[in-house]
Amino acid sequence: MAATGDPTSAPPQPTIVDGEFVPTHDVPFSEALDAMIAEVRAGNAPNLGRFCGYCYTPLDQGLDSCPTCTTTVDAVPARDKISRALAHVYTAKRKREGRYVHSAAWAGILFGAAVSVGLIIVLPDWTKVFAVIFLIVGSYYIASYLGNVAIQDYAYRRGLQQFSVAWQEFLELRARGAAEDD
Length: 182
Ligand SMILES: [Zn+2]
What we know:
This protein is mainly alpha-helical. The chain has helices at 31-41, 84-122, 129-175, and strands at residues 15-17, 20-22.
């Protein structure tokens, strides 16, 4: 199997239909593998199973074609453990997405605080109490909106684009025979 990664060309763009990512052979991100790597890292599951020989998507017994990249076990034999190098790619993606959400929530809190300071300055007398109420309630809602709603879609798309780049690097590593642990 030849690696399709060509360092001189732009990495393949993730396919997104109606806001939902559709896994392809070029960008074979697997939700099931993502969940499994998180479980393995947390120590809740062993790094053992039956995985697609190309993209490591977990394959249920009897499944001979990968639901993520459509590679068949006849074309590339199934593997019994997840590549450590690929696990790093998935873990890095999770961490980055977490950082986006975290940063957005902090930006919301800072923005809310700035608005509160403005209100304290412009509101007369006792109505300054509304600035304090805004600081407590408003900041919370702005932070959760930015952290949970506004940034999710951005983080989702950025995460997949970065996965695509990292997947190309993984393919190059594997083509050199440097991606397997044993
Ligand atoms: Zn696959």
